[in-house]
């Protein structure tokens, strides 16, 4: 391990100790969690890869749900709705360009 990585690992351990002491919960300690997560992604590439896989799976799931929804839903003007971009829950009408946001039935309270 070279000196640069050793310094990063030492910083990572210090931040972990600070989090163990609960300093990241204080009002001026939010930077501790941010730096810890940033170093974790640099030093442990598997974390970043797992996050990319999770994000891809979530976008694919959203796309499937939107495809099912857009098959049955139409705009109030009668136009077809189209998803704005992959992974998004926003859709637009082809004719009047009205914007719609898909929400789950659990969040409609």
Can you describe what's shown?
With 109 residues, the protein is mainly alpha-helical. It is built from three helices and three strands, in the order H-H-H-E-E-E. The protein is elongated. 4% of the residues are buried.
Report mean pLDDT, rounded to a whole number: 88
- Output the radius of gyration: 22 Å
Beta-strand percentage range? 5-15%
Strand order of the largest sheet: 1-2-3
H/I helix tally: 3
What labels describe this entry?
single chain; 109 residues; mainly alpha; three-stranded antiparallel sheet; 3 helices
Task: Explain the layout of strands and helices.
Layout: H1 3-20, H2 30-43, H3 45-72, E1 81-83, E2 90-93, E3 99-101
Antiparallel strand pairs: 1-2, 2-3
Helix pairs in contact: 1-2, 2-3
Describe the structure in brief.
This protein has 109 residues and is mainly α.
């Amino acid at each position: 391990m070279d000196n640069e990585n050793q310094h990063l690992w030492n910083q990572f351990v210090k931040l972990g100790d600070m989090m163990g002491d609960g300093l990241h919960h204080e009002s001026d300690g939010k930077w501790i969690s941010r730096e810890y997560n940033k170093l974790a992604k640099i030093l442990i590439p598997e974390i970043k890869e797992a996050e990319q896989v999770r994000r891809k799976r979530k976008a694919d799931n959203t796309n499937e749900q939107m495809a099912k929804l857009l098959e049955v839903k139409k705009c109030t003007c009668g136009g077809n709705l189209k998803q704005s971009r992959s992974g998004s829950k926003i859709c637009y009408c082809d004719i009047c360009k009205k914007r719609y946001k898909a929400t789950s039935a659990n969040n409609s309270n």
